[in-house]
Design a protein that fits this description.
Layout (H helix, E strand, L loop, with lengths): L8 E4 L7 H9 L3 E4 L3 E5 L12 E4 L2 H11 L8 E4 L2 H9 L14 H5 L11 E7 L7 H6 L3 E12 L8 H4 L5 E3 L3 H10 L2 H8 L2 E4 L2 H10 L4 E3 L5 H17 L1
Helix pairs in contact: 1-10, 2-3
Length: about 250
């Protein structure tokens, strides 16, 4: 059992149902875990998938897998080359029985996928991107510059999880050791939901995030102790939490 996690109080903010495995991992190592989602994920009405089979299908997130595969059921569109933007998305595809052609083994995101030599759609090939509503669309422009034909299917949207961050009084009365935030939208939700007392409580804690972009937004909001995990998967987040707590102890 890791000493750094024993009795550590940790806030997880992922959407409902997406932090359970990490919560169990932390609890098994002696941590005290509070799960308070700051975002809710809602499926969008099923759209008609493209009628022409793409050369590549790219899944942007585990949520794209969760809601995209039913939308594509029976279409045969995921029978060819399949790409995932990170290991968490690749794991979701594998669990659903879909063979992943290429995915970054560490980290994740559009840049990481574009850097993979095996992700090589040629000019004139068709790429179908399964994604959420909105988002930064960092994959599209580089692919279009290659001469790739793009099609997109938005299958979910992010919504505020609640009006207020519900922190039990017995938690609020004790120092929070660390919080985990996995997106800028999740960070914005946390800031909007927290009462002044809860905001002071969470901002005094170490913060673990999944990208430099989220880290920059957190620092701009006022966090000082920010640790960037190597990826968004549970193993990477666990390692980052141990690192952040060890750093706290040294300070």
């Amino acid at each position: 059992m890791s000493r750094g996690l024993v009795d550590a109080r940790i806030l997880l903010t992922r959407p409902a149902g997406q932090a359970a495995a990490l919560g169990r991992m932390l609890a098994s190592r002696g941590a005290l875990v509070l799960q308070r989602p700051t975002l809710a994920i809602e499926p969008l009405p099923v759209q008609a998938p493209p009628t022409r089979k793409p050369d590549w299908v790219v899944f942007i997130s585990p949520n794209a897998v969760r809601y995209g595969l039913p939308a594509l059921a029976g279409s045969g569109l995921v029978a060819g080359a399949v790409a995932a933007v990170g290991p968490g998305t690749a794991s979701a595809l594998n669990q659903a029985g879909v063979t992943v052609t290429v995915a970054p083994t560490r980290g994740g995101g559009a840049e990481a996928l574009l850097a993979e030599p095996a992700f090589d759609p040629a000019p004139g090939q068709r790429v179908l991107i399964i994604r959420g509503e909105g988002g930064r669309r960092r994959l599209q422009a580089p692919l279009q510059a290659r001469g790739v034909i793009l099609e997109e299917l938005a299958v979910y949207r992010r919504m505020p999880a609640a009006c207020r961050l519900d922190v039990p009084d017995d938690w609020l009365a004790v120092q929070l050791d660390a919080a985990v935030v996995t997106s800028v939208a999740g960070l914005q939700g946390l800031l909007a939901m927290a009462t002044p007392a809860a905001l002071e409580w969470v901002m005094d804690a170490a913060l673990v995030v999944v990208s430099e972009r989220v880290a920059a937004a957190a620092r701009q909001a006022g966090w000082v102790a920010v640790t960037v995990a190597d990826g968004a998967d549970d193993t990477a987040l666990l390692a980052a939490l141990e690192q952040a707590l060890e750093r706290q102890k040294d300070d």
